[in-house]
Structure formats: C-alpha cells, structure tokens
Amino acid sequence: MTRPAAKGGSRASADRLARLLNLVPYLLARPGIEIAEAAGDLGVTERQLREDLELLWVCGLPGYGPGDLIDMAFDGDRVTITYDAGIDRPLRLTPDEALALVVALRMLAETPGVANREAVERALAKIESAAGDLVGAPVAVRLPGDTERVRELSAAVERGRALRITYYTAARDETTERTIDPLRMLMVAGRAYVEAWCRRAEGVRLFRADRIDAVAELDEAAVVPPQARRHDLTDGVFRPSPDLPLITLRIGRGDRWITEYYPCERVEVDGDHWLVSLRVTDLGWARRFVLGLGPDVTVLAPVELAEQVRAQAAAALAAYATPAGAAPSADQAVGAVTQ
Predict the structure, then answer these.
(1) Which pTM does this prediction carry?
(2) Is the model's pLDDT at 300 over the cut of 90?
(3) Where does the WYL domain start and stop, copy by copy (predicted)?
C-alpha cells in the first residue's frame, strides 16, 4: 500500500521544480559564476544548490540520451551551462498571477503609512511593463475606509502642513476643535488614522479619519516637538492597562459577541449568562455602551456606572411622559442595575 506523502512534501517538490526551471536561464546569463554567489542570489544553501545541479544533469529532452540532457561544466567552485535543452528563459507569470501581483502592489501603494512608497511603485511599474497586455484590463483598487477625506488627509500629511480639524471623540461623546501637527497616516484593522501632535492635549494622539468632521490646511509647516513619540500599534489601537476603569457585566446569550470584539480580562459562565470584565477608556463611554446593549445586561461593577445607567434610563423614560401607572420603571426598561 502506498503511504500518503508527508504534509508539505508536495509543496516542497513544487518549490524545487520552480527553482530548477529558473536555475538554467539564471546560469546561462552568468557563465562561470561561483556556486557560493549563485546560492546567495537564489536564497538557498550551497549544499542545496549542488543537489539541484546534480538533478539537472539527468533532466532534458525526450530520449534522454547523449545530447538530450542538460549539461554543464565545473571549474573548481564555478559552474557553466554548456547545453540548456531548450530551457533558456525563466518562468513567466500567468495572467492570474500577474493581475494578483498588480492588485496587491497597487493596494500597498495606496495604504497610508507605507514607508517606502517609491520602491513599491518601481516594482509595480516593472511588473506592469513585463506583463504587458496581461494587466491591460482596468482595475480599481479601493481600500476599506478609502474616502475623499482619507485622500485629503494623506495629501496634507505628505505636504507637511499643520491642520485644524473638527473632531468627534466617541469616548466622551463630544466634538472639539483642534490644531494638529501630523506625523503620519496609518491603516489599522481597516480604519485610517492620523497620528499627530495635538496642541490642545499637548501630546501625540490618534485621530480616526471617519470621525474628522472638517479639516483645514494651515499656512504653516507641521512642527512636532522632540519629545513626541509614535504609538506602538502592534496589538491594535486600544491597549488596556491597569490604570483604566474595570467594569463587570452580566450578559445574556445575545450579547456574547462582546467577548470577541473587545479585549476582556475575565469571562465566566453563570448559568445562561456570562460574567464579563473589561477595561474601558472612561465610564462615560461605558454608560453609552451599556445602554445600547439592551435589557439583557446587568452592571455588576462599579456601582458608579450602574447609577449613571439607571439615571439616564429614568431620564429617557420621563421624556416620553407616558400616562401615570402605564410607564414601566427604569429597572424594567433597562436591565443595567446593581446587584
């Protein structure tokens, strides 16, 4: 019985075949090249290259006799192809491969914050030139969040100008006017951000592009103080820390998505409900968050948050001014109460 190939074996064979097909035209263009230099260019070890050369010796045209097989000459540690058996050109991209590379490079070139965009554009130009008509079909690349506002901000950042923006801060549910000195544009989890020195806060801040309601480019260059430090966004924009408020909620089945969308410090099963603890930027944001979840959520801690939720729910009920005796209590309308 034939044993199945080891996992990854077929992939390794395919990689070696592609390497062998490109090896012959590579060596033809460099007669007498040192094996060590060739191995470095091709990204393999000298041992692997020698094994590839030994395999090439038994490859060639049908008939596989003298004059049919690939032949080469060795002079010490140098190698020269003396017969190529017709394999004198490197592999060409298929139409799908060429188009995929073009789309990927165009997307990379449009991504805010790319450090060396010129290198990307040079590589794109070379591939488009080599592929010719294969990529002649019109292709429009649009990134998530790639709006006119993002393009406007990117252009202003590249010009190195200070900006005056009108910005909505969701955590505090307020809109403020700010003057900022941009450092860079970023794309994190599909959202565009401007990282900038905020003169109002006197610190480096991240401003989400879709929350900038208005922007005006000033007639002055952006000046970033030497003490400004860029954010480490390896783990995302929001990084929970012990100094942030910790809230604990008792949630029903319909709100379990919270544990996948937000970083939670603790998740415990409590019958049909879950007990979830997570850090928040401030209690104002947490109050609006809880009120938006609906009646199957209970605030367990802190007490201050439960009282804020109860008070706002009561105020909302009072605004509707329903007949006496017919209005439900705040506790019935919103399940966010202290236990």
Answers:
(1) 0.43
(2) yes
(3) 150-215
